[in-house]
Design brief:
about 170 residues; single chain; 3-stranded antiparallel beta sheet; 4-stranded parallel beta sheet; Rossmann fold; 8 helices; 2 domains; alpha/beta
């Protein structure tokens, strides 16, 4: 059988399933931010009605994360057209710990922009010179930028806390 055949077990073993993509409802904006910092695609709109949210989840293949018990009864979810998880915790730390535990989520190699959910790109130190405070430029060597919102990120003192949560969401 050729190497690229469907039945090739070696190829199947090396392929991992794609990381889940989420849609956080209007009550879960902070959870969306932390999922992005873990490297997950977590859409969030502060003003969207239930039907539009379900339509977007279905069209984009996103799992809905919600605190709304009522939406869990909608036919999109009860008939399996949209995968959804009801989040019980009131606080962000509990929400993050619950969803990472339930889905066995591990941090992805790179965080996403916590503001607009886009992947972050490497930014050469020289290209950051006029875009960050002088002290930051002089003390940091690695920079990332978001192509959508143009924010620039670097691993400042707060990064240790983020990394701790990335590897142990219960340490929030």
């Amino acid at each position: 059988m050729p190497d690229n055949a469907v039945g090739n077990s070696d190829a199947q073993e090396t392929m991992s399933p794609p990381a889940p993509r989420f849609f956080c409802d209007t009550m879960l904006g902070r959870l969306a931010k932390w999922l992005r910092l873990l490297g997950y695609d977590a859409a969030y709109l502060s003003e969207v009605d239930d039907w539009e949210m379900l339509r977007l989840c279905r069209r984009e293949g996103r799992m809905l994360l919600t605190r709304d018990r009522g939406i869990m009864e909608r036919w999109h979810i009860t008939r399996g057209m949209v995968e959804a998880r009801l989040i019980h915790s009131d606080d962000t730390a509990g929400q993050l710990a619950a969803i990472t535990d339930e889905l066995s989520l591990q941090p992805q190699p790179e965080p996403r922009c916590p503001v607009c959910n886009q992947p972050l790109n490497q930014l050469a130190k020289e290209d950051s010179r006029d875009k960050v405070p002088l002290y930051v430029y002089e003390t940091q060597n690695e920079f990332r930028t978001c192509a959508q919102c143009n924010r620039i990120y670097w691993k400042a003192t707060h990064w240790e806390n983020i990394e701790q949560v990335r590897h142990d969401p219960t340490s929030f």
